[in-house]
Amino acid sequence: MRNIYKCLIIGSGAAAYSAADWLNREGLDDIAIVTENRLSGTSRNTGSDKQTYYKLSMDGLTPDSPYIMAADMFSGGSCDGEKMYIESVNSTKCFLRLCDLGVGFPVDRYGCYPGYKTDHDNTLRATSVGPLTSKIMTEKLEKRVIETNKTPLFDNFLVTKILTDKGKAYGIRALNLKDNSEKLLYAENIICATGAPACIYENSVYPESQHGMTGVLIDAGVRMCNFTQWQYGMASVDFRWNVSGSFMQVIPRFISIDCQGNEHEFLNDYFDDPYKAYNYVFLKGYQWPFSSERISESSVIDLAVHNEMLLGRYVFLDYTRNPSDFSFDKLSDEAKEYISNANCFADTPIKRLEKLNSKAIDVYLRQGIDLHKDKLRIAVCAQHNNGGVYTDNNFETDVKGLYVIGEAAGTFGLSRPGGSALNNTQVSGLVAAKHIKNKNQDTISDIPSAESDDIMPDFEICPETDYSEFRNKMSRVASFKRDYDGCISLLDEINNTIISYPEKHRSLADYYRDRDMLISMKALLEAVILEGPESGSRGGAVFIKEGKIKEEDKYYRDYLTVTKDGQIEFVKVSPVPCEQKSFELYLNELKEQT
């Protein structure tokens, strides 16, 4: 008799543990978690100067409502208003659950939660517990799920296939990383919370332990939504970490060093006025992601960094000295007001950072990098996929019983407020759990026997197998600068590689990981090639064809880009709901409670 779980959850980050806890709160105990490595993944291993959590305003003074919050998130374009409303309506409930679990968000003496301004937003909805917000969230949720709820966890299992039959998911196949054996697990529902395909770019701020499993989901038959919409921004590369917020607001020096060791303070080469450059550096604090709408403003900083790298130079931030001819008096009023209100006037960037956010310095000290004396090597890196797998409002995919939540789901459009992804990890877990609890579920009676006969590839160790050059090319032609001809050429290479994919590799695990990576690259390149000529430069990328930047066609802001198997469909977005019935009607709809 095969054990059939009510739900299997793939992943061990903030979204996965959120779903597990909400399922338990809904009274569903017959669940289990499967993870490649409990201690890897983005939630546990990434952050920034003060990693942001985005929620409905709760500072006691800022006027706000779920509708206003949803409308703000929807305003970026190419996202569903209904999904944004679901995100905002449930944000307070999910945020307060984290507080109850011990995530110590700042609170004033009256019980209000003060906030601050984040990127792509002009309100004060942002909050934080410091550089490690998502790590702390994950640890608190994990304690609840594993220690209190006693949810079983299969660690060191790499999911290699979603088992499906007649459009319905019924289980997974996984590789036991300890002994290379195969394990089959069966379930009425599967929730995938495995993040973006973090492995597809060379210049990446994702932790090296984060791979994602988008290729496995594509193989299962899902469609992708807004897969082209990524978020890129400056990050350190020797230790992968976002250099947003405080790291920019103290206005460090930008330098490049060539192969002869010559140092050059290069921003003045890209601006006719150095103080325009310094003001834009300050603005990068909350305009950190590259934006196609700011390519003549603050995003020139990203372009300058990238161009210096294309010239064969390494790029660094230097906090030990001010930029050349630096003076507070010549900064913009916005920059001066911020620095004054934060009481961080000081002689050098590192001293300003000590006053503004000393925890940001500590992050690097723990990695053996001392910003008091060490230069910080940076690049413009992939940071977040605003797109992903296409789901309905319950986060269920086209494959019945298969849910995708968190960053792996294609929820956000062209831009999103900083920290809204963390809110999404909590809300998507809640919504999927409620849908699983309340839907009419067909129990699995017949499991196709063929799956038990599947065998793993005839495998040979080949240490030289390496696909890093594909990641390098993805960063060059298909990241925040997208070259149409370059994408077509790279897609041809990847298609040929997939066709002749060898059953020889560094290890059996890497055989599956690299195949997943290649399938994900193929899907993204196809989406860029199909969408770019229509919609042009938008969101976090510029689209270049025949050497010219194609301007955005804003018509497509009212549509989701849905892709599968080299085909594209533009789906009209839903508006933000604006409906209100009499309270008594809702009251009368309640079932009798005893």
Can you characterise this structure?
This protein has 17 helices and 24 strands. The model has no long low-confidence stretch (mean pLDDT 94). The chain is globular, with a radius of gyration of 24 Å. 51% of the residues are buried. 33% of the residues lie in helices and 19% in strands. Helix 1 (14-25) runs parallel beside helix 6 and helix 3 packs across helix 4. Strands 1, 2, 5, 6, 7, 8 and 17 form a seven-stranded mixed β-sheet that branches. The protein folds into three domains: 4-52 and 132-231 and 385-450, 3-Layer(bba) Sandwich (FAD/NAD(P)-binding domain), CATH 3.50.50.60; 232-382, no CATH class; 456-572, Methane Monooxygenase Hydroxylase, Chain G, domain 1 (Up-down Bundle), CATH 1.20.58. The protein is an alpha/beta fold.
List keywords for this structure.
single chain; 594 residues; alpha/beta; FAD/NAD(P)-binding domain; Methane Monooxygenase Hydroxylase, Chain G, domain 1; seven-stranded mixed sheet; 19% strand
Write the layout of secondary structure elements.
Blueprint: E1 4-10, H1 14-25, E2 31-35, H2 42-45, E3 53-54, H3 66-74, H4 81-89, H5 91-100, E4 126-127, H6 133-148, E5 153-155, E6 157-165, E7 168-176, E8 182-192, H7 214-220, E9 224-225, E10 230-236, E11 241-242, H8 246-249, E12 253-257, E13 263-265, H9 274-283, H10 300-310, E14 314-318, H11 333-341, H12 349-365, E15 376-385, E16 388-389, E17 402-404, H13 420-438, E18 460-461, H14 468-477, E19 481-483, H15 484-499, E20 504-505, H16 508-535, E21 542-545, E22 548-549, E23 559-564, E24 567-572, H17 583-589
